[in-house]
Amino acid sequence: MSQPSGSTSSRDEEEIEELKAADAKEVHRAVREEGEEEVNRPAASLLWSGLAAGFAINASLLAEAALHTGIGETPWRTLVVSLGYPLGFVIVILGRMQFFTESTITAMLPLVTRPSMWTLKRTLRLWALVILANLAGTALTTLALTHLPMLDASLRDGMVSVSEAILHHDAIATFWTAIPAGFMIASIAWMLPNAREQSFLVIFAVTYAVGVTGLSHSVVGSAEAFTLVWAGKIDIGRALFVQIAPAVIGNLVGGAGLFAVLAHGQVRPEMPDGGSDQ
């Protein structure tokens, strides 16, 4: 005896809906709601989570240093060493820690959807607290790794060698190379709602592309800059004003100024009041 066609059809439709990727409007809403939760978090929560992210992102530098130490001079050395770059991002993003470049889009969407002075203040508050906490985390962690007996000398030397790549960029070059990096990292937050079980691969692919091309990321770049400061290679002024500050601004331009605005622009005409789908 056959099953009622109505229940079978309903079940098939539910399975199809589960398999369908969310459209741009649904992704916009998911990312925006995440941003609304973030801008309303207590300052202490943002600071502690941002500090944890600053600690964790150093896994990228450590992994690159280990690969750099184990591989001799070869034409493909950069391709292999850069395989370590995504590790910190995987920990931070899948661990749901507050991360500056990811928050450029999540916090920006509520602002462009419902512009107001209150939302602007909350967005700026979020960015300021998170970047300060991220930088504090990278500064403290790299200080410990370079001065305490946590690593062997070869690995510490590897951290310095990997970090010296940022010395090829002056402030202007750092700013311009930070724009595509900000755009690409912001795109991860946009893709994750549809990534599901492939979240790891999405994060790995995008961040590997950032690392292997030598683009400037404000938080990873700060870990590299602070490593060079603690090793006596550069002074704190260069670290802050040539390497870190231009990268922060460039990441903001790429993440909030370009990706978030473009992502909002593609769905804005479909929203009932031209701005909000609520």
UniProtKB/TrEMBL annotation:
Residues 1-36 are annotated as: Disordered. This is Formate/nitrite transporter FocA, FNT family. GO terms for cellular component: plasma membrane. PANTHER family: FORMATE TRANSPORTER-RELATED, INNER MEMBRANE PROTEIN YFDC. The keyword Membrane applies. Keywords: Membrane, Transmembrane, Transmembrane helix. Pfam families: Form_Nir_trans. It comes from Sphingomonas palmae. InterPro entries: Aquaporin-like, For/NO2_transpt.
